[in-house]
Specification:
Blueprint (H helix, E strand, L loop, with lengths): L1 H47 L9 H4 L5 H20 L4 H13 L3 H14 L4 H26 L10 H5 L6
Helix pairs in contact: 1-3, 1-4, 3-4, 4-5, 4-6, 5-6
Length: 171
């Protein structure tokens, strides 16, 4: 009789322990699901546009142009943001989020995501390299916006020299 009682107590303790482990791991498992799904959507978007790019060169290759591929990337961003909301310890989600923003030509957001990845994984050279590409894309986007805003007709002679040579004086 006491042996049956001991087995029941032991099995109840096992079940309670298992439930405790599941409860502790649940946010991480949810985050991993969203991270994997976001990564799959990014891969589909790149495949849709037949890009054979290496992951690290996403920012260097420029944004996606097809509406269908951009829609996939927007879905990926949603999944990756959910991953980070579930567990901010999933640093790879920040890396994928940076890539997604680069594909959408949102380099400022990409830089922020890459910075979060570099903070959480400073020893990973991919993060530093992709952050560099994101910063380069951000600079190119900012100068492109100035060119479009200030010089929509392409006539550089109308520009003040200070904007062209960085001296700060008009000639």
């Amino acid at each position: 009789m006491s042996q049956i009682h001991f087995r029941r107590i032991l099995s109840m303790a096992g079940v309670i322990t298992l439930l405790g482990i599941i409860i502790l791991l649940l946010p991480t498992l949810i985050a991993l699901y969203h991270q994997i799904r976001g990564g799959q959507l990014l891969a589909q978007a790149l495949a849709f546009e037949a890009r054979q790019t290496r992951d690290a060169l996403v920012c260097a290759d420029g944004p996606l142009t097809a509406d269908q591929s951009r829609a996939l990337v927007h879905q990926a961003v949603d999944f990756l943001e959910r991953s980070i909301a579930s567990s901010s310890k999933q640093s790879y989600s920040y890396l994928l989020l940076g890539r997604a923003y680069c594909l959408l030509d949102e380099s400022g957001s990409a830089v922020q995501a890459y910075q979060q990845f570099v903070i959480s994984r400073p020893e990973n050279p991919s993060g530093h390299m992709e952050l560099g590409f994101g910063l380069e894309a951000s600079c190119a986007n900012n100068s492109g916006k100035n060119e479009k805003k200030d010089q929509s007709d392409g006539d550089w002679s109308k520009w003040p020299m200070s904007e062209l040579d960085g001296q700060g004086e008009d000639m």
